[in-house]
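thought: fold this chain, then report.
action: predict
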Amino acid sequence: MKNNIWESFKDKRVRYGGYASMMTAFVVAILIIINLMVGQFDYKLDLTENKMFSLSQQTLELLDRLDQNITVYVLTETGKENLIFDETLKQYSAHSNKIKVEYKDPVLYPQFATKYDKEGKGISNDSLIVEGENGKFKIIPPSQLFNYSYNSGSYIVESLAVEERVTGAIQYIISEKNPVIYTLKGHDEPSLPYYVKTQLEKENYEIKDLNLLTDKEIPEDADILMIYAPVRDISKEEGAKITEFLENQGRAIILTNVLTNVKEDQMPNLQEVLKKYGLSIRKSMILEMDAKYQFANPLYIIPNLQGHEITNPLKSSGLPVLVAVAQNIETLQVKRDSLEISPLLTSSETSYAKTNFQSEVAEKEEGDIDGPLDIAVAVTDTWYENNEEKITKLVVVGNTEFLNETINAQSAGGNIDFFMNTVNWLVDKEESISIRPKSLLTTRLKINVSQVYIYAGITVVLIPLIIGIIGLTVWLRRRNR
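observation:
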């Protein structure tokens, strides 16, 4: 009997089976040890395409500079916590010991939120309350933690805005004052689109109207002067007040539209202000001839994003900007040496700008301006007084239609990102640039017909053929042994 057992171990199949069992046990043991070791480290890897569960570099830099403790209270019932919110908030407390996240069950602590409810309207469940040790706080209702789009009669959750709102609340708490934007009125300017105003308010900007025909000067608390799509020219007196504001380290953004029914010198006073900063608005209409930079027709331009603090986040994230019916912003040959003029959005070399609006043809004619053409330009004026650096910033955009909500949606939000990055750059809030909602929409693979046939051939024909050849080869080798 013993001999039979011993002889069985000499059999090839038993030996090979034993080796295989030993190797399997060895590999399993190694995997268990590795798993136990890895479990000791608090390390997570975010493999989502848009880094859904990671904080942006701007947020991390803000957390590194915190000089006070901040608590984020989450008003939610025990057992009903939102796992996506929870994972994002954990990133804050994990990166900085200045941030503490506390969950407060409204059922167990019904009076907790009352001290924050200054208007007596109540604070809804799943709200966040961000409070600093300086006593300042901000309430973020659950409706602001997501962004929605309206489609076919219903609202669709489009993106997650937790980081955007929480980081914005932290900035509000630690800031001595929130920046104020004055929008110029009195020249038939339209109102800012509602969603643009909402976005500005979410990022802690205060928006006020300004009429320089009645106000003696631009108020001292003005951080940004916005001139938005004037239909009539400013007066010389207004031009003098705007120039004085800019010369005292003022910051401004000027957005103008193509006005086909006005004379070329319709806005000489506004042009005179721009001339001091090396720019001129050309009465023109840009047509893009390169199909790669068109959207639907030559007047809808997907411009090149030039290198700048404003546009770099858009370039790195692959977000386009879509501009509809734009005019050319010209850089003058004669300008002060203290000026640094940087193009932001430009058309392609095949584009041109029509100057004759009475023309009945779209083709290029005599007098039209050759591309590439600047659509948006940033200006920095740097000088010194008593060995102290002084800086003026100005951005001029030859279009306002890019802020139309429909056009912004067609750019996947790149247009509002460009605008908000511009505003934040003007007031030196670079840490706010590019902190935007994380999309929750499913990204679909877009392939053409030829690619369908190629991928089908690879998966249906080529891969099975390779496997069959390998199997046949192995079978023939074993048979001939």
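thought: worth noting. Residues 2-38 form one domain.
final: tokens above.
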